[in-house]
Design goal:
heterodimer; A: 323 residues; 14 helices; B: alpha/beta; Rossmann fold; 4-stranded parallel beta sheet; 41% helix
């Protein structure tokens, strides 16, 4: 039967993202002579770091069986805070204060979802609005800007370079590696997979489920803090709604990377692939001179196909059993 | 939060109040789009309340829809219930609001649309529109671009959020005027920056990769324009590149002062708010008010910027 995949099928389907990624890269290289240049690749890596770092944290939340839709407005919050405090108390104090405040928001998410066991979709959707409200109360609707853009060492995070490589790329790369090691080799990583895969069984196995979920939200908030430092430094200012809609781009990258929305399965490194793929699609289409609606269409078509392949791999067939 | 907002709920004995209100004060209700979401709207509200407070004959009810169409429609209904003398509305959605505006019209309450116009189907039911002329702003930007480039060159354009009237009209005004005035200025590409500085920066970085030569950049507002400038500065290609924006922001004003930004269009939220209130008062006074009332949004460049205050947003 056509819809029934052979024994080797699911494995191929699981590599569908990688295959699609390579196909896109080859196609863009053929269609634009500017695409496969060192400058462009570096530029896309740098652009993808902000979404990328956030996606690392959300990946861990999703593997733990939950969602985090609040990261977009949390990014607005953290960026407005760090940029505003930069000129008031200096960057050396602004950064820790921002991290503390952002972690508090993560702790609220973690408390509501982890300890009180409320539905994460509702909680973080609610927090999306609550945090946006906090930003507006804090800033009074005003944009914030850093006055001395040339003189501050804060510029290092978004505009600087370490050993010749742009700082955001270094930070994104290092965090991806650290998270990968945590999730694949350390007890905490295995607990997250266990809690997301089968919450009941994990509790019977003596895993502190509440604490694990709580920690995943702290990690997500930590990542938002890092993204905020990069964003604030790159732009040297912040709008109140600068992170609006980023939660969907982040989630799209996580899904594209093959992390299951049902929890218990996924990989940090594959999320990196998802992030890069989205960034390269947007970059490649602009390089080809395609209008913006093509970018929306192609991006989301790719995501939907990715989800389909993901489900098909689990079912062992391309079409649903009922069809 | 020291806003002197007066939220009057419908039905709290407002009928009695309406009849008690003396003949020489007028009651005007305003429902705004989304106060607090940006500095422009925040400043607009403060200026509107200040202008109303300064006029002893005006009593205002200030409401905010929080960006929610449904809430704005019910606020319109509340204001109709309260039988205010006039309603000023900053549409959250020009299309969805048409029935609510028609209701007010049917009840004999004049509606003044402020800042962003209502859809064409609703124009018959409004007393007047007061706000900036975004097509004219696009025209001004095209004229500045043309002048700065001396009539020839290659440029890119970064637009606002696709689908937003303001973004569409500015682009239309710019494209049409540029083609007419300077046919030798070539637009290499047009891509959106979504009113977001970081997004505009990304778009510009890709433009810089794609095109070896870019002489000028037109952005749908200064916030995006500064993002584009950031990208060009980082790539070491800002020298000699002409940056033209619209809606002069403080960051754009500062960049102009540093000589990095060529020009923009000055749009004051204070003028916007005062024009809306004045239009409503003119309508109530029975004056012959034109349907479309544009307040002046002049060109601001490095040469004449001293005549303007630094924008508050």
């Amino acid at each position: 039967m056509l819809d029934r995949l052979k024994a080797g099928g699911p494995a191929i389907a699981r590599q569908g993202i990688l295959v699609a990624f390579i196909v896109f890269m080859i196609a863009f290289t053929i269609m634009s002579d500017r695409f496969m240049t060192a400058d462009n690749l570096m530029s896309v890596f740098r652009q993808s770091a902000i979404i990328g770092v956030m996606a690392l944290g959300v990946t861990i939340v999703v593997i733990g069986g939950n969602l985090d839709l609040s990261v977009g407005s949390m990014l607005s919050f953290a960026t407005v805070l760090v940029v505003d405090l930069h000129d008031k108390i200096g960057p050396e104090l602004a950064i820790p204060v921002m991290f503390l405040a952002t972690l508090c928001l993560g702790a609220v998410n973690g408390f509501l979802v982890g300890i009180l066991r409320l539905n994460s979709l509702i909680v973080t959707l609610g927090m999306l609005s609550v945090i946006q409200g906090l930003v507006l109360i804090y800033s009074g609707g005003q944009n914030v800007d850093i006055v001395d853009q040339q003189g501050t060492w804060f510029a290092l995070f978004g505009r600087g370079a370490i050993f010749g490589i742009a700082t955001p790329i270094v930070m994104f790369g290092l965090m991806a590696l650290v998270f990968h090691v945590i999730m694949t080799t350390m007890p905490f990583g295995r607990r997250v997979y266990a809690v997301g895969g089968n919450p009941t069984a994990s509790v019977f196995s003596g895993i502190p489920r509440s604490r694990v979920v709580f920690t995943t939200y702290l990690i997500s908030a930590l990542c938002v803090g890092v993204a905020a430092v990069m964003l604030g430094s790159r732009v040297m200012g912040s709008q109140n709604n600068v992170g609006q809609g980023y939660e969907l781009q982040v989630l799209a990258a996580v899904i594209l990377g093959g992390t299951s929305l049902l929890g218990g399965a996924g990989s940090v490194l594959r999320t990196v692939l998802g992030v890069l793929m989205l960034a390269f699609i947007q970059n490649g289409l602009i390089l080809m001179g395609q209008p913006y609606y093509t970018q929306w269409l192609v991006t989301w078509a790719v995501i939907i196909v990715a989800v389909w392949l993901d489900v098909a791999a689990k079912r062992g067939r391309l079409l649903s059993p009922i069809a | 939060m020291t806003k002197t907002m007066r939220f009057l709920l419908a039905g709290c004995g407002t009928l009695a109040m309406a009849t008690a209100a003396s003949a020489d004060t007028v009651r005007i209700g305003i429902t705004q789009n989304n106060v607090g979401i940006d500095s422009y709207q925040t400043t607009y509200e403060q200026a509107f309340i200040a202008a109303a407070d300064a006029n002893p004959d005006v009593d205002v009810i200030v409401l905010d829809a929080g960006g929610d169409v449904a809430r704005q429609i019910s606020q319109m209904q509340d204001l109709i219930q309260q039988q205010v003398d006039a309603i000023i509305v900053w549409p959250t959605d020009g299309q969805a609001l048409v029935p609510a505006v028609r209701n007010a019209h049917r009840e004999g309450i004049p509606v003044i649309v402020t800042n962003s116009n209502i859809a064409e189907a609703g124009l018959d039911f409004i007393a007047a529109f007061s706000g900036p002329n975004n097509i004219q702003q696009g025209i001004y930007s095209a004229e500045m671009m043309c002048e700065a480039l001396g009539g020839e060159g290659e440029i890119v354009q970064i637009t606002g959020m696709p689908g937003y009237t303001t973004a569409i009209e500015r682009q239309q005004g710019f494209d049409d005027r540029l083609a007419e005035l300077c046919p030798d200025v070539v637009q290499l590409d047009i891509q959106p920056g979504d009113w977001n500085r970081e997004r505009a920066q990304r778009t510009m970085e890709t433009f810089l990769t794609r095109f070896d030569n870019i002489d000028g950049v037109y952005s749908g507002d200064d916030n995006m324009g500064v993002g584009a400038l950031n990208a060009a500065l980082a790539a070491g290609r800002a020298e000699g590149m002409v940056f033209i924006g619209a809606t002069n922001f403080a960051v754009g004003y500062d960049a102009m002062e540093r000589g990095e930004y060529w020009g923009s269009v000055y749009q004051s939220p204070v003028d916007d708010a005062e024009a809306a209130l004045q239009t409503a008062l003119d309508v109530l006074a029975g004056e012959d008010v034109p349907k479309l009332n544009y307040f002046d949004t002049p060109k601001i460049t490095q040469d004449n910027m001293a005549e303007f205050d630094r924008p508050v947003f």
